[in-house]
Write a structure and sequence with these properties.
8 strands, two-stranded antiparallel ribbon, globular, single chain
Length: 207
């Protein structure tokens, strides 16, 4: 099992996170994992909700969206902040509305996306540096919006995958994990590869 950082991007409108954090913080996982919550503001109701959890759970941390240039979107800064704050190289981004009653959710997810390379096991590799699942922050999204979004993501992926010699099909989660994660990627790849950042940004678009 590899160490994992789970990033949740939220704001004061996503108070449902208060009900979802306990299950996420009590996962039966054999390795280290942490949760990094990226908030829109330094203060606010979400801060008051998170701080009591942080006092009880050392693997929960939080950061907030600072002032930024106008030409940069909130989403770009939020993902970058979460990635920089992550202590582990394997990153999973999930929406604040994600809920699970399964204490082994993280273990099952890690098993599903784990790659065996000789005697070594890793969550992601050079041949699959990211894994795309259901990235929409909203609980429901119409069929046509999903289809249009998928076409946009594939268009952004096409050139990058060709340059890397990677099959785009291998970057999409199968039906068993598609709805249990938004996106998984390696921190260093994200920090080093601007094109990969664009792909992640496109996939994590909100409607």
């Amino acid at each position: 099992m590899k160490h994992i950082s789970i990033i949740i991007i939220t704001d004061d409108d996503n108070l449902v996170l208060r009900d979802n954090l306990p299950a996420l913080l009590s996962q039966d996982y054999d390795s280290q994992y942490e949760i990094v919550v990226v908030r829109n503001t330094r203060r606010g109701e979400m801060t008051d909700i998170i701080e009591p959890f942080m006092q009880r759970h050392k693997n929960l941390r939080s950061t907030f969206l600072p002032d930024k240039p106008q030409y940069i979107t909130d989403e770009e800064v939020e993902i970058l902040l979460g990635a920089k704050a992550a202590q582990h190289d394997n990153i999973i981004v999930i929406p604040p509305t994600f809920h699970t009653n399964d204490s082994k959710w993280l273990k099952r997810l890690a098993d599903d996306i784990e790659i065996t390379d000789g005697d070594n096991k890793q969550l992601l590799s050079d041949n699959r540096p990211l894994l795309l699942g259901d990235a929409h922050y909203h609980e429901t999204l119409g069929f046509f919006k999903r289809r249009r979004h998928l076409k946009t993501v594939k268009k952004v992926l096409k050139k990058w995958c060709k340059q890397k010699g990677i099959s785009a099909k291998t970057l999409f989660a199968d039906k068993n994990t598609r709805h249990s994660l938004a996106i998984a990627f390696r921190k260093q790849d994200y920090m080093d590869d601007m094109t990969l950042r664009d792909i992640i940004q496109t996939h994590l678009i909100t409607f």
